[in-house]
Each structure stands twice: as structure tokens, then as C-alpha cells.
């Protein structure tokens, strides 16, 4: 483990500039492209078998062995333990779900949910935040900032509060983030800027403001964030006793997770720690489907690091000209300009991936099935389950494939969407869901209004539960 055996490298093969990890860059200073964190693996101690990570299980009193991110630090060796900022992130679980397997058309025991909602701030973002804030400490950064659809801001705010750092500055689209997430940013003390605009506007502004004010950018443009998010794949492997699944299915927003997963599998293969990689399915919301459109309608591919930039720019110009903004009830992935687009294309190439889009109706019905099955997630996470259902019905995922859906955020992040779905308030349904094209709450569990009277209460229980 050594800070001088890691470096940053531009992903553009025609640039490939390298930089030390002691720099806070967020984009290649030469060509503006994305950066990777790379390692001189042959000069680093890497386990010869994944099962060697089990040795950390017996040392739970040590914070770095306890953390679900840092117990794998041999696979993200960019930081010395003294710089690590950890709050016990990554204690998440991989659980089979028979109900969801049935719903999507998989055989019993073949569908697993990786429940990242169990993280301290309730979403997968904590995996990345611990890594990027450890880097922030390494470079001596003083103040952090991010743009967010809600979960990144909640995670950044929590980590800064827990570490006793100055409150971060978070940029969110006004009225665009779910209440659970907004309440976290406020409670944890972040300076919360509600930009009159959406996430894409907030992302553009935070980059400009960070440059001008020298703020440490904690979005997934930051390659150290993605190093932490690789560990979600390691925990999936851990949950499967180090067997590689057939499919990893993940919602796609800013495309940081899918990018991190692709890098994780590429490295594991390169290090000889896995015999093969799983296939990757990235699921957009239909109302925020940039990756889907570019991949399927414009034929954009990784192309060895030279994707068709003109096709991408032309698409963004079309969106602007037609004033098309992202719109979906899955507000976490309501994004039209995913900053990690190129890395996600690379991940699709590495993992023989596919891209699908799910409507808000499909997302909410899938979400209700996840909840009824006993875990629960926010709308964006359920896009993964809706995507599996499509891919099984298309015959692309076979009924006995072993499939892992990443549940990215906790059910309680967005109570409004859930209550609008299950509730009986037609006005609320129409304004929250109907306006987005949701026609029915297929799996609604309606609340029952009953008088404050024991006899009526007993009658209601007999009527609804004991028949
Ligand atoms: N699921 C949830 C719950 C999210 O919060 C996000 C992203 C995603 C999926 C998509 O992941 O961006 O890696 O493709 N939320 C970001 C935020 C954008 O600001 O909290 P991605």
C-alpha cells in the first residue's frame, strides 16, 4: 500500500497524460477528458485469491477492517490508512429475493438484491464519499462541494459533519430532490444552494464555482469517488462466496456506478482474481434516457477510447434546441448530461453490456415488488428490477441466470412517491405520478381509514385481514 504507486491518467488514448495523486484535478488539464486512478500493480501487494479478504472478517474492531470499502483496500491502494475518513460505510448485504425473482421471471434462487440503502446515509454514495474525502484529506483540501439529485449531497453532508470538517456546499435543483435527501443535507449542516434549474444546471454551476473558489469537487467526475464504488462489486462477490454472477444490473444516472463497476471487473480480470466478468445492464429512466438513445439510436460505442464525439454533441444540441429536460419520478436519475458517459461506454465494452430504459410505471411497480419482498428502495433503484423484467421477457437474460440488482437507495429517501402510489388521495397521485404518465398503482397496499371506535376497528381487521 503506497501513495507513490498510484497515479491519475487521462482516459483519452490520444492524450493519456498522467498526474500524481496528490493533485485535485477533476478533469484532464491537457484535454479536459475524464481521469482514472491507476496502479502499478506489480509493485503492490495484491492477494492471490479473493478469499484472502475473509481474513479481515475476524478483525472488526479495526475501523479499516470493519469498513465495507476499506477491507478491500488492497484493490484501491491510493491512500495510506492515516488519511482515511471512514464512518463504517459499506455494511451492506446481498440477499436473494424469491418474490422479485418470480416477478421478473427468473427461477427461484437466481435473483439477488445488493442493498446499498443500508449505508450510513442510506445510499451507495457513501462507498464513493469515503474514498474521495480520504483523497481530499491527502491533498489537504479545505472545503468540498457537489451538485446532486439528493443522495450525493446527503452523503457528503453526513461525512463532513461526522469528520468535523467545514460544512460542504451542495448544489441541488430547486424542487427536484426528494424530501428524505433534502432533510439530510439540511440537518447535517450543508450550505444548500437550491438552483432554479435542474441537476444538469447544478452540475455545470458547481464545476465553474469550484474552479473559481478552489473547492474540492465530490461528484463522480472525481475519479477517487469511483475507486470507492468499485467495492460494491467486491461485496457482491463476497456475498456469492467469490463466484462471479451472470449479470449485474444497475440504474444509470450520472453513470458513476456503472463506470466504477466496469473498472472493478476489468482490474479483477487483469489481476487474475476472477476467471470471467459478468454482463452489465444499465437501466435509464425513459424520461432521462441519454445513454439509451446514444447507444441504441445513434450507435455510440466506447470504440477503444474514441467514441463518436460529434454524435454526442449533436444529441445535446438537439436537446437544447427542443428545450427537452430530463423528467422522471425517479428523481435520483433525472439527468440528461451524464458526466461519466465515456467511462460507462467503456464499462459496457468490458462487460459485454446492454442498455435499457424503464418507464415510471414500470419503475414504481417494480419498486412495490421490492418492498413487498422485504427490503425496500427508492424509485431509481427499482429501475434495475424493471430492467431485468424486460431483459428476461426479451430472452436476453435466461431464467436460470444468476442476476444481481443494485438497490442504490433506501425506501425512506422518497416517501412522497411511495405514499402517492399506495395512498387513496387521487389528487396526490395525479400530481406526483399521473403527471409522469403513471396510470395505475398496480400493487397498491391501500391504507384503511377507520373511526376511532373499537367495534369498527375490529370489523375493519376482520374484513381486511382475517377473511
Ligand atoms: N440510484 C440512486 C439512488 C442515486 O442517487 C443515483 C445517483 C443513481 C442511482 C444513479 O447513479 O449517477 O452513478 O449513474 N444520484 C446522484 C446524486 C446523481 O446526486 O445523488 P449514477
Write out key terms for the chains shown:
467 residues; alpha/beta; binds ligand F0G; six-stranded mixed sheet; 13 strands; single chain; four-stranded parallel sheet
Map the helices and strands:
Elements: E1 6-10, E2 18-20, E3 35-39, H1 63-66, E4 93-96, H2 98-104, E5 111-115, H3 125-138, E6 144-148, H4 151-163, E7 169-173, H5 179-187, E8 191-195, H6 199-213, E9 216-217, H7 223-229, H8 231-239, E10 247-251, H9 256-270, E11 279-285, H10 290-297, H11 309-321, H12 341-350, E12 354-358, H13 360-372, H14 379-393, E13 403-407, H15 415-422, H16 426-432, H17 454-464
Parallel strand pairs: 5-13, 6-7, 6-9, 7-8, 10-11, 10-13, 11-12
Antiparallel strand pairs: 1-2, 1-3, 4-5
Helix pairs in contact: 3-4, 3-7, 4-5, 7-9, 9-12, 13-14, 15-16
DSSP strand (E) fraction?
5-15%
Q: Going across the biggest sheet, name each strand in turn.
A: 4-5-13-10-11-12
Count every beta strand, where a strand is a DSSP E run of 2 or more residues: 13
Helical percentage:
25-40%
Can you count the helices?
A: 17
Taking the sheet with the most strands, its summary is:
6 strands, mixed
The outline comes out as globular
First and last CA, distance = 63 Å
Ligands, deduplicated: ligand F0G
Mean pLDDT: 97
Low-confidence stretches at least 5 residues in length (pLDDT < 50)?
Answer: none
Structural class: alpha/beta
Q: Helix and strand succession?
A: EEEHEHEHEHEHEHEHHEHEHHHEHHEHHH
* Radius of gyration, in angstroms, nearest whole number: 22 Å
Amino acid at each position: 500500500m503506497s501513495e507513490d504507486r498510484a497515479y491519475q491518467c487521462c482516459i483519452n488514448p490520444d492524450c493519456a497524460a498522467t498526474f500524481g495523486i496528490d493533485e485535485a484535478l477533476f478533469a484532464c488539464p491537457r484535454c479536459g477528458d475524464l481521469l482514472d486512478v491507476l496502479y502499478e500493480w506489480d509493485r503492490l501487494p495484491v492477494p492471490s485469491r479473493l478469499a484472502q479478504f475473509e481474513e479481515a472478517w475476524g478483525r472488526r474492531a479495526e475501523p479499516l477492517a470493519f469498513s465495507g470499502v476499506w477491507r478491500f483496500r488492497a484493490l484501491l491502494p491510493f491512500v495510506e490508512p492515516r488519511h482515511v475518513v471512514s464512518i463504517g460505510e459499506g455494511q451492506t448485504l446481498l440477499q436473494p429475493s424469491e418474490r422479485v425473482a418470480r416477478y421478473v421471471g427468473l427461477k427461484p434462487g437466481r435473483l439477488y438484491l445488493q442493498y446499498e440503502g443500508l449505508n450510513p446515509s442510506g445510499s451507495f454514495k457513501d462507498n464513493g464519499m469515503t474514498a474521495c474525502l480520504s483523497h481530499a484529506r491527502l491533498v489537504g483540501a479545505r472545503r468540498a462541494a457537489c451538485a446532486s439529485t439528493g443522495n450525493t449531497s446527503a452523503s457528503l453532508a453526513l461525512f463532513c459533519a461526522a469528520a468535523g470538517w467545514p460544512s460542504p456546499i451542495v448544489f441541488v435543483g430547486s424542487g427536484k430532490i426528494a424530501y428524505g435527501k433534502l432533510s439530510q443535507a439540511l440537518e447535517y449542516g450543508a450550505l444548500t444552494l437550491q438552483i432554479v434549474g435542474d441537476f444538469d444546471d447544478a452540475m455545470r454551476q458547481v464545476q465553474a464555482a469550484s474552479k473559481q473558489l478552489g473547492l474540492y469537487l465530490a461528484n463522480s467526475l472525481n475519479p477517487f469517488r469511483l475507486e470507492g464504488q468499485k467495492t460494491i462489486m467486491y461485496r457482491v462477490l463476497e456475498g456469492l462466496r467469490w463466484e462471479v454472477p451472470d449479470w449485474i444490473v444497475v440504474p444509470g444516472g450520472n453513470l458513476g456506478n456503472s463506470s466504477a463497476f466496469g473498472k472493478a471487473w476489468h482490474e479483477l480480470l487483469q489481476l487474475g482474481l476472477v476467471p470471467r466478468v459478468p454482463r452489465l445492464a444499465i437501466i435509464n429512466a425513459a424520461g432521462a434516457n441519454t445513454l439509451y438513445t446514444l447507444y441504441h439510436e445513434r450507435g455510440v460505442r466506447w470504440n477503444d477510447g474514441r467514441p463518436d464525439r460529434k454524435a454526442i454533441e449533436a444529441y445535446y444540441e438537439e436537446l437544447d434546441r427542443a428545450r427537452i429536460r430530463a423528467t422522471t419520478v425517479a428523481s435520483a436519475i433525472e439527468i440528461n448530461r451524464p458526466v461519466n458517459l465515456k467511462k460507462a461506454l467503456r464499462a459496457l465494452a468490458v462487460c459485454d453490456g446492454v442498455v435499457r430504459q424503464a418507464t415510471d410505471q414500470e419503475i414504481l411497480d417494480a419498486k412495490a415488488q421490492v418492498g413487498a419482498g422485504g427490503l425496500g428502495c427508492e424509485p431509481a433503484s427499482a429501475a434495475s428490477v424493471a430492467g431485468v423484467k424486460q431483459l428476461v421477457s426479451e430472452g436476453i437474460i435466461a431464467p436460470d441466470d444468476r442476476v444481481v440488482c443494485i438497490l442504490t437507495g433506501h425506501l425512506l429517501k422518497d416517501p412522497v412517491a411511495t405514499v402517492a402510489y399506495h395512498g387513496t388521495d387521487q389528487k396526490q397521485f395525479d400530481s406526483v405520478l399521473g403527471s409522469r404518465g403513471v396510470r395505475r398503482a398496480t400493487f397498491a397496499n391501500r391504507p384503511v381509514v377507520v373511526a376511532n371506535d373499537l367495534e369498527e376497528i375490529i370489523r375493519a381487521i376482520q374484513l381486511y385481514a382475517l377473511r
